[in-house]
Amino acid sequence: KIELCELEGQYLGFYLTEHPTQDYQERLEKFKIQSIEEMLDDTGGSIAGIVIRSKVIQDKSGKDMAFIELEDYSGVMSVTVFRDEFALYREKLTKGNYVAMKVVRNG
After folding, report:
1. Mean pLDDT along residues 50-58
2. Is the pLDDT at 50 greater than 60, yes or no?
3. Coil vs helix vs strand at 17
4. Element of type H or E holding 8
5. In whole angstroms, what is the distance from residue 53 CA to residue 68 CA?
6. How large is the average pLDDT for residues 1-11?
7. How far is it, in rounded angstroms, from Cα 75 to Cα 59?
């Protein structure tokens, strides 16, 4: 089922049957992880999804940080991962990986 979803996303650009994160919703709710749609109305909390884009840049001091786009069944959110967190989780924050994270929303 996950492979079918991945193929749909890869070849169609969207998921025809269901979003790959849909199967995890019940478990995520137990840990109070919000959907991206819910997070858009909040100032912070925990979200989970698939990394669909990741762009690594260097901050003013020359340390790596990243801009990622995270997608779940309800939408897409852009997330800035600052250098300390990026140094800890760099390997996980690559395209195609499922991740959960705490976020603080600005604006």
Report:
1. 94
2. yes
3. coil
4. helix 2-12
5. 5
6. 56
7. 28
